[in-house]
Predict the 3D structure of the following.
Amino acid sequence: MARPHVKRTKLHHLCDRAGLTQRMFAEQVGADESTTSLWLSGKRMPSANVVPKIAEVLGMEANYLLGLFVAMELRRNYGDTVCRFVYTHLNQLSAEEDYS
């Protein structure tokens, strides 16, 4: 039986770029794989105290990741329009800082 299509988040893509599977990501961050699954699916956001470790694992600035998580939360609560606005500005910042 074919697996249903899973919408991938920006965090998924960042893990892919870093060459990390979900299990590897969970181990390096020091979180349960079930917890990181919720983060990767966008169903739950990591707490602010975990973001610096995620940033370290992904080789990124913590503030950029905080912005991504804020955008994901806005999308969950307010829809795509607000999310696209935030993502557009984050992408501009990432292009300037080469985090994309």
